[in-house]
Amino acid sequence: MKFFMKSMIAALAFTGLAVPAAAQEASPMSLSSDVKLVKIETNEAGVSERTLVAPNVIVPGDRLIFGTDYANSGAEPITGFVVTNPVHEKVRLASDADPELSVSVDGGKSWGKLAALTVKSEDGSDRAAAHADVTHVRWVLASVQPGESGRLEYPVIIR
Amino acid sequence: MKTQHHINLSLVALPLIALCAAPAHAEGVSAGSLIENTATATYDDGDGPRSVDSNTVVLAVDELLDVTITSLDPGPIGVVPGSTVLTFELTNTGNGPEAFELTANPAVGGNDFDTTVDDIAVDTNGNGVYDPGVDTILTGPATSPVLAEDENITVFVITTVPAGVADGDQSDVELTAEAVTGTGTPGTTFAGQGVNGVDAIVGLTGADDTALGSLIAGITTVDLTKAASVVDPFGGTSVVPGSTVTFTITANVSGSGSVDDLVITDAIPTDTTYVPGTLTLDSGALTDASGDDAGEASATDISVDLGTVSGGASHAVTFDVTID
To answer: Which of A103, B268, B274, B319 qualifies as a FRET site for B16, CA 20 to 30 Å off?
Structure first.
């Protein structure tokens, strides 16, 4: 019980920090992140099948799917919904990620499709950005109606 | 089912190896590392901009058990009966600290002869050469120090070549390294046995590896033959006082190795006198004095130092005496 109280206090404090402008009311939007390990299994017909499992054992080279469920539990539509997700330094964006995904290769300062971005190579010249250069991914939705929910995912490979 | 598991991992991991060639860190994220993921949303609910964070997903990277062992000898080592040293490199290709048990097998199929393994040692002073008394000998079971990820060490296998091996006979010694935590089919998991309590999982190498070191016997023999030709004072070949005898000593070195410090000596026969200045090596004149060339001669004996002679070489030494 003591622990539960502490957790509540911590959670409240956190909310206060994250949303200074609107700490007085609960966010109508909720985000819930999860992660799955992609397993590729070859079935009896010799066809490889992808399944998503809980990531109980993960090692370099494994493929993970980070997902975020969002839902608008409020009574009003919300607009300008932007979900930003830093890509952890120990993983890299998988090469089969949606090429339309908006990504950043400079720590979230500028955004675009990966194919349109460049990074400085060691000799100072620009080179085309690669999946391993991606530092952030984001999704932009014009509006989310009351009661609407959805899921956003991006695949990574553990470096 | 276990077999299926194996195939799965291979399929997942192989493309990764190809893609991961460029990054500086060879073998991936360290075991025990945490991977965290938090999404943040910003939006406008009509009352102005707002922000909300998702929960943070935290994953601990498990420990991959992988190892490679390779022979560092450039080719078969030429050996003679007695002690010889084979050199290997042991590399922890996993992503966490791990020790490896080493086993040397001298009885490899196809061997012409088998050596006796005396010791397995690690190159404690890192000079690449086995230094008895300096480099640490591993005692049974021979277990390497704990190697950090990507760390490698040089390992020596000290063996004895038995007497009686024939020139050109070959022998292999097989050195096996096995992760102390465990080995098995790739994907085999040892719960909680990785660094910081993460799981340890057998990687594509099976957490063991084997390398062969090769030996070839270079048995070298020296045959000396001595011949004499006589010229008498009358132009014939009679052995009479005043005849000159030319002795030719031929050294034939055979075998695949070489001999060091080969010195040919011969005494001047009694009742004969050495003819000064007649000592030759392979038809080239040598002085009688010592120290200025390979040969020296005196009234009592001759000596020619041939140094190191490889198998297949032949050298001839001549000198003249007169019969008293």
So the answer is: A103
